[in-house]
Amino acid sequence: MRESIDSAPAPTLPWTNPWKVTLAGILARRPGSALLEIGPLGLLDRFGAVHLDGAQVGFDGEPRDWSKVTGVRLRNARELLTSDSVEQEVDRIRPLLPPVPGRKKLLMYLAKNLALVLMTALDQGDDALSREIVAEIRYRGPIPGSRLGDRPALFAAAVLSLRPDINEALIAEAERREIKVTPAA
Hints:
With 185 residues, the protein is of the alpha+beta class. The protein has helices spanning 2-6, 23-29, 77-80, 85-93, 103-122, 126-129, 154-162, 164-176, and strands spanning 20-22, 49-52, 56-59, 64-65, 69-76, 132-140, 147-150, 180-182.
């Protein structure tokens, strides 16, 4: 799993193309992946993705225009990568999948691979787990004056922890745009 995550291309400045890393893309890189036999892998983007480029930023299939971003908050990676994360993810994903034959098998496959992603992230050691990663992207809502936030789910948090270059690129782009970056308390 670590090799698949490490082999994902890094975001590069200046931005020339939309950039993202997804759960489907990582799983497809793994040798013998069952996902190679499953139809459109892009459907999994809403369960695990980090989007980052010069126009948009976001997690899990919900990129937002940078022009709407009002702040970025950081937290300690260990706070986001908990042993309850896999169960929370399965509970979040279950209602998003239509009740069709094979749903349970797909959920089990996703849970197994999300657990592997979590264990890979937790296996980094204390120094890496105490690193501050992006824990929330705040943005203006559709109603004037409203503020909303996107938080990374398990896959996105693990990728930000395992790939400091991605986390740093997101923070650097926010700072370049003079968006407030709030460190962990």
